[in-house]
Amino acid sequence: MKKTVVLLLLVLTTQGYSQFAKSMFSKDPIINLENWQKQRLYFGYYLGFNSFDFKFDYKDVVTEDIQVKKTTGFNVGVVADLRLQEYINLRFEPGLYYTKRDLYYPNFESKNDFFREVNSTYIHFPLLLKFSSLRTGNIRPFLVGGLSTTLNLSSNSKSKDDNFQQKFRVKSWTNAYELGFGIDLFSEYFIFSPSIRGVFGIGDELIRDNVTAENPNSPWTGNIDSMKSRAILINFTFH
């Protein structure tokens, strides 16, 4: 029974992809959803993946940088698209992003000291301009760019503990600018838009460790001038 179901799904998927490819790339394709993007306002949703990093700037020259191990996270959100003119759209793409980064500090021996796991759950609010090219058949490439603000639900910003208690803290709200490109593929019933985008943090998001008489200078945050997030986003949008 399982083999039959799998075989049926493969057949349906192959036929669906064949019809989709034919409508996209044939010599004289049928123009799908010809008037769709002439709407003043339309909505959609997206699913995707992310890879977040940290960029460190130091006060003093260091012999070894803090090492960041990146992982692949996931994105999910909605899209509101406002048509400003034929080739320019204003897009609002709020979404939920989950990611994890592992930090390895040099010059420590104990794992409690050299390792910090940074889990982040972001509510992401990007406001973007989309610049589309001329449509060729059922294909329309585009560039996108703009600003975003992000709320980190896992920031530990209100925690009184710091790295001396194995607690890594960042600010709750951060800002960034975003640049990317993608392509609109018009099928018979919907628009599929894969895209790739870079996110570049603007402000320092690190919360320094508490300074006390016993710990006047933190070995984890004392020499860091700024710490900014960077990311690559791959989204698959459906309208």
C-alpha geometry? elongated
For the record, the CATH class is: Mainly Beta
Determine the structural class based on helices, strands and strand pairing.
mainly beta
Shape-level CATH architecture:
Beta Barrel
CATH topology grouping: Porin
Number of strands: 10
Taking the sheet with the most strands, its summary is: 10 strands, antiparallel
- Share of residues in strands: over 45%
**How many distinct helices?**
2
Q: What is the assembly state of the chains in this entry?
A: single chain
Q: What is the distance, rounded to the nearest whole angstrom, between the alpha carbons of the first and last residues?
A: 35 Å
Protein name: PorT family protein
Pfam families: OMP_b-brl_2 (PF13568)
Organism: Flavobacterium geliluteum
Describe this structure in words.
This protein is mainly beta and 239 residues long. The chain has one domain: Porin. Helix content is 12%, strand content 51%. It has two helices and ten strands, in the order H-E-E-E-E-E-H-E-E-E-E-E. Strands 1, 2, 3, 4, 5, 6, 7, 8, 9 and 10 form a ten-stranded antiparallel β-sheet that branches. A hairpin with a 4-residue loop joins strand 8 and strand 9. It is elongated and about 75 Å long. The N terminus is likely disordered.
